[in-house]
Write a structure and sequence with these properties.
Layout (H helix, E strand, L loop, with lengths): L2 E3 L5 E2 L18 E3 L12 H12 L2 H17 L5 H41 L5 H4 L6
Antiparallel strand pairs: 1-2, 1-3
Helix pairs in contact: 1-2, 1-3, 2-3
């Protein structure tokens, strides 16, 4: 394994105490080896990003599915984009719950309105204004 001088970058001879080019002292802390340093992966979790975007755009089911898959992938990749995946799951689930509750609300009140209207017509009730007299002063 080749070692290099920290000051000039020259290849050092094995066991050399000084660099043959610049004369710098080769202490073990001043010597660099040819092994490359470990670089953190810059790969992103595209599925988590897609799930978050779908959740924001209102494609709830697709956003929920992609966000769950992205969350699973984030756990395997040391938490890469875990926040986006979690936000996608929360947004999608909240929108789906709101849509469900709103649908039940609409169904309930449309049924109540129909029932009241049918009772009104069946009983031939006159509106309250028909029973009040108009008094002119």
């Amino acid at each position: 394994m080749n070692k290099y001088c920290v000051k000039c970058g020259e290849v050092l001879e094995t066991g050399a105490a000084f660099c043959s080019k610049c004369g710098a002292k080769t202490i073990s802390s001043d010597i660099q080896s040819t092994t490359t340093p470990t670089v953190e992966s810059t790969d992103s979790n595209g599925i988590a990003i897609a799930g978050f975007v779908c959740a924001l755009l209102g494609v709830n089911v697709v956003g929920l599915i992609l966000s769950i898959i992205g969350l699973s992938n984030a756990k395997k990749a040391n938490g890469k984009n875990k926040g986006l995946a979690l936000a996608g799951v929360i947004i999608s689930a909240a929108r789906m719950a709101f849509s469900f509750i709103f649908s039940i609300f609409l169904i309930f009140f449309s049924t109540v309105k129909t029932t009241v209207s049918n009772q009104w017509e069946n009983e031939n009730l006159k509106p309250v204004s028909a029973y009040t007299e108009k008094v002119i002063y």
